[in-house]
Amino acid sequence: MTIDELRKRIDEIDREIVRLIGERLEMVQRIAEVKNAEGRGISDDERELIVKMNWRRLAVEYGIPVDIVSILADLLIKYSKSLQINLRGRKKLQKRVTFIGYGNMASVLARQLVKVGHEVVITGRNLDKAEELAKILGCRYMDLESAIEFGEYIVLALSFEAYKNGYVNKLFVHLRNKVAMDILSSKSWVFHYLEGESLQNNFMYVSVHPLFGPLTPPIGEKIAIIPSKTGATVLQDVVDLWFSAGLEPVVVDLEEHEKAMAIVQVLTHLYLTAFSKALKKLSQELHIYPDKLSTPTYREVRTIVERLKHIENVIFEIQKTNPFSVFVRREAVDVLKDVIESIGRQI
Ligand SMILES: NC(=O)c1ccc[n+]([C@@H]2O[C@H](COP(=O)([O-])OP(=O)(O)OC[C@H]3O[C@@H](n4cnc5c(N)ncnc54)[C@H](OP(=O)(O)O)[C@@H]3O)[C@@H](O)[C@H]2O)c1
Of 116, 175, 290, 337, which one is least surrounded by beta carbons within 10 A? Predict the structure, then answer.
């Protein structure tokens, strides 16, 4: 075959691939209709895992590098989720949302809200930083008091430090009749503190936790919603707000959230941090550069570990503040010892 003939064949194959992607997206739309009719959520972690494993298995079957199909599968899954969110027919609602804080998570959450047409204002203890983020997002910034006055929803996009050093304490008198949300990964005493203050200062408090970091595309990702005693009446509004921004709200109670995060975050971060440290130590001791002979599994773990390096402060905060973390760490060490012991016995 000549090059021209081979290229012609490639064009035909490309056409077929695109046609099949179109057909696949049509099925996604039909699933969205069924999910809507049955009131089911968009994400289905178990199904997602099965689909990814199917792609990997097929890659092996057809002799294609697993890395390529993994990227394609991830892309298709992400796009399918965002398609389903769009198809769900967002309620046309434009809300006024104030972000106190201009860090990583404020940036990612505010961007999503701006994108879908909400009026967003950024503020915080440093107005230069607030202005900088507002410029990037194409929204407004204001001094603290005006910004709170402006917003119907006030997102405390602040780290744990701001609660400990009394910064948040100064905000409560301004929050009357507003809906306030913290975004902390581990709610610790902050939930009861904000709940108590919301009762005293007549604001509605609903705690939220975005279940993704600043380096993950947020569309279709989950956000935990934890209503307090004062938040029940606005719970659906909060759910609608985050849903409109392409996130998947999951309503849970405080205990369920903290226990789940003890596994999803404390345990996962612990083993991955240990892996990262062991990798460095062993590479030095064995005088070897393991990346040279990497396997697909090793590369995936390395990618996750590199991503986590960007949120080391948050990882440390969660390890310190999740009420179940001491228990989880103790159990994790015991399990590791058991695994080592059982491997020893097998040999
Ligand atoms: N990063 C994640 O992966 C992730 C995911 C979900 C939830 N969260 C939760 O979100 C929180 C914020 O995360 P982030 O990544 O956005 O953190 P970040 O980028 O460090 O931003 C923290 C924000 O809090 C402000 N702040 C810190 N200490 C303060 C104080 N003492 N008084 C007043 N303002 C203060 C910072 O303002 P200055 O710049 O002026 O200090 C900044 O606006 C975390 O603590 C975590 O619990 C994080």
Answer: 337
User: Does the structure show a pLDDT above 70 at 137?
Assistant: yes
Measure 102 CA to ligand 1 centroid, in angstroms. 8
Q: Would the CB of 185 count as within 6 Å of ligand 1?
A: yes
Amino acid at 212: F
Nearest CA to ligand 1 atom 1: 213
Dist. CA 34–CA 140, nearest whole Å: 40
Residue with more model confidence, 315 or 116: 315
**Side-chain half-sphere CA neighbours of 217 within 13 A:** 9
User: How much is the pLDDT for 346?
Assistant: 75
Q: Which residues contact 32 (CB under 8 A, 6 or more apart)?
A: 42, 83, 84, 87, 88
176 neighbors 204 (Cβ within 8 angstroms): no
Q: In b/e form, how buried is each residue of 79-105, taking b as 16+ CB within 10 angstroms?
A: ebbbbbbebeeeeeeebebbbbbbbbb
Region 1-20: what's the mean pLDDT?
94
Instruction: Give me the residues paired with residue 123 across strands.
Output: 100
User: Which of 100, 105, 108, 316 has most ligand 1 atoms within 8 Å of its beta carbon, as the pocket-test mutant?
Assistant: 105
Q: What angle do CA 63, 66, 68 make, to 5 degrees?
A: 105
Residue of minimum CA distance from atom 4 in ligand 1: 213
Ligand 1 near 156 CB (within 6 A): no
> Which three-class secondary structure state does DSSP give residue 206?
strand
pLDDT digits (tens, 9 = 90+) for 268-307: 999 999 999 999 999 999 999 999 999 989 999 999 999 9
Cβ atoms of 120 and 114 closer than 8 Å:
yes
Q: Mutate which of 129, 141, 158 to test ligand 1's pocket (most atoms within 8 Å of Cβ)? A: 158
